[in-house]
Design brief:
The relative contact order is 0.13. The C terminus is likely disordered. The chain contains 18 helices and 17 strands. By secondary structure, it is α+β, with helices and mostly antiparallel strands. The radius of gyration is 32 Å and the shape is elongated. The strands form 4 sheets. A 9-stranded mixed sheet has the order 6-5-4-7-8-14-11-10-9, with helices on both faces. Strands 3-15-16-17 form a 4-stranded antiparallel sheet, with no helix packed on it. A two-stranded antiparallel ribbon has the order 1-2.
Length: about 525
């Protein structure tokens, strides 16, 4: 036996139930570093000879001291988008939109969606970044033409979203619908049949906009949407959306939950005529003073176990303006404290402006909150309106909702339904901030509608992933999901001498592992060596 290591080529040979190693060739002994270098060169020559004989080597040689980074592909968003599109059935709809187009509609739609999940940007930027996500050969014109190919499939995507939520992946009952409206603005002042000037929730009154309405279920999954001209009042959007929703899905009975912007005699009458139940926020201060709605002497505790100083109080009565409806008025000490602090912040700013040279009529009355608590006297002098302030104080902590009697909801159930309205508000926040639906950079009405549809599809996929994770006891915010997927990538390297390439996969973070696990994607990542360049 040599005192130095021996370098041999061996193969495993089975003899009965045992496997022994058979020496194929002895290449020499290793005394020092110079011997290792010689053996390395010998190994490279052997691999070269094998490849010359037409046999591919099982592991191409890479000299790590000569590696060159060729590219990094961020494939996390692609893997997840592929899986989600298949899971919810959206891929099949994209295939039906293919038609006679020579470009791949489904592939390009996935690119647009994953780019919106990763870093929302223009379609031009999406085209420019395609190789970052592992896509190749997609032309810019094909991105726009894909939008055109999909524009007639809005109904199908919405119907499929409803099926996934109600009958497919989640099987959620459709007994409660949450409705809200927002505005989406353009970096433009050009008006057409869709883009109009109107009341902007983004304070972009000098720019044209569209009105976007959304229906979500109690889990926050978007089920339906409608797009209106930018000058349509949001109160006029409720009934058209619900009527289309019923027409699409044949929903017999459902309770619609809306904020007070939707509350009007006409809307309530229309909801009742259409057979919808409702829970609507109510503007208490617009009801008759004779009702003394903020007189706590007639209120009772909502929960007996609440401490006196924290107890939520309530009272009910027939709604004075709506038939077959109950008005529920609550008083919350926490809400009262919030109302007080909000008012004090506004008053403090007003006092500061009145004591400075900024106390002009123009600067103060342009702000609705400032205007509310001030009055203009002779000589354009602005003073605090103490009567209005005292009136505002008397309503601290009070809130009202209107509930249709046919819904058969207890006070706690009705308040719970209204409290869940945050889900649609959160969904709008995700749409506007995380997915950046606004501003819109398309100008043609049909492209605008396609853009909104793609944002709806992306939103549904993102919320689907959130809900799957939540049901798997892993609650991740959209930001955490986006960060986890952005860390999933592989690096392509090339040996400068041999021109062989390798692909090195990144390790998964714990959040990424949770995402892959819930979607059935492989968690184990590995590296591969290739004899031909894939750069």
């Amino acid at each position: 036996t040599s005192k130095h290591p021996t370098f041999q080529i061996v193969e495993g040979v089975r003899e009965g139930n045992k496997v022994r190693q058979k020496v194929v060739a002895s290449l020499g002994i290793v005394k020092d570093v110079s011997d290792l270098k010689k053996l390395r060169n010998l190994a490279k020559n052997l691999i070269f000879k094998v490849e010359q004989q037409g046999l591919a080597a099982e592991n191409s040689y890479l000299n790590f001291s000569k590696l060159i980074h060729k590219k990094t592909v961020f494939n996390g968003f692609q893997l997840v988008t592929d899986r989600l599109m298949d899971l919810v059935g959206f891929s099949e709809i994209a295939k039906r939109a293919q038609g006679k187009n020579r470009f791949n509609v489904e592939e390009i739609l996935k690119l647009i969606i994953l780019q919106r999940m990763d870093l929302p940007s223009s379609k031009l930027r999406t085209y420019e970044r395609q190789s970052d996500h592992g896509f190749h050969g997609i032309e810019l014109q094909h991105v726009y033409r894909t939008m055109d190919a999909l524009e007639d499939f809005s109904e199908e995507f919405q119907k499929q979203a409803f099926q996934v939520a109600h009958n497919g992946v989640f099987k959620e009952p459709v007994d409660c619908l949450f409705f809200d409206v927002t505005t989406l603005y353009f970096e433009s002042i050009e008006v057409d049949e869709l883009r109009k000037f109107g009341f902007s929730k983004d304070q972009k009154h000098h720019q044209v906009q569209i009105v976007f309405s959304l229906v979500v279920n109690r889990e926050g999954l978007p089920l339906a949407y409608e797009t209106f001209a930018g000058n349509i009042g949001e109160v006029k959007t409720l009934l058209p959306v619900l009527e289309k929703f019923r027409e699409r899905f044949s929903v017999k009975k459902a309770t619609v939950v809306c904020d007070r912007a939707m509350a009007s005699v006409k809307n309530v009458a229309a909801l009742q005529a259409a057979g919808f139940f409702f829970v609507l926020a109510c503007k208490l201060r617009q009801l008759p003073e004779r009702l003394h709605l903020n007189d706590l002497s007639s209120f009772t505790k909502l929960n007996d176990h609440d401490k006196d100083e924290e107890a939520i109080l309530f009272k009910t009565m027939a709604h004075p303006n709506y038939s077959d409806s109950t008005l529920i008025i609550t008083y919350s000490p926490k809400r009262a404290e919030k109302d007080r602090k909000d008012r004090e912040r506004v008053l403090e700013k007003i006092v500061g402006k009145l004591s400075s040279e900024e106390g002009s009529v123009k600067k103060l009355i342009s702000n609705a909150a400032y205007k509310k608590f001030t009055e203009v006297k002779k000589g354009s002098k602005i003073t605090m309106n103490q009567k209005v302030i005292d009136e505002d104080i008397s309503w601290d902590g009070f809130h009202g909702i209107t509930v249709s009697k046919g819904a058969n909801l207890s006070v706690k159930e009705a308040l719970g339904r209204y409290a869940d309205l945050w889900r649609v508000e959160e969904t709008f926040r995700v749409t506007k901030t995380t997915l950046k639906t606004r501003p819109i950079f398309h100008w043609k009405p049909h492209r605008v509608l396609s853009h909104v549809m793609i944002c709806f599809i992306t939103l549904f996929l993102e919320r689907t992933l959130e809900l799957l994770l939540r049901r798997n006891n892993t609650a991740l915010t959209p930001d955490r999901i986006r960060y986890a997927l952005s860390q999933m990538h592989y690096v392509v390297v090339e040996d400068e001498e041999s021109k062989n390439t390798g692909q090195i996969e990144s390790e998964l973070t714990e959040d990424a592992k949770a995402i892959c696990s819930v979607l059935g994607l492989p968690i184990k990542r590995g590296s591969t060596l290739n004899s031909a360049s894939c750069a």
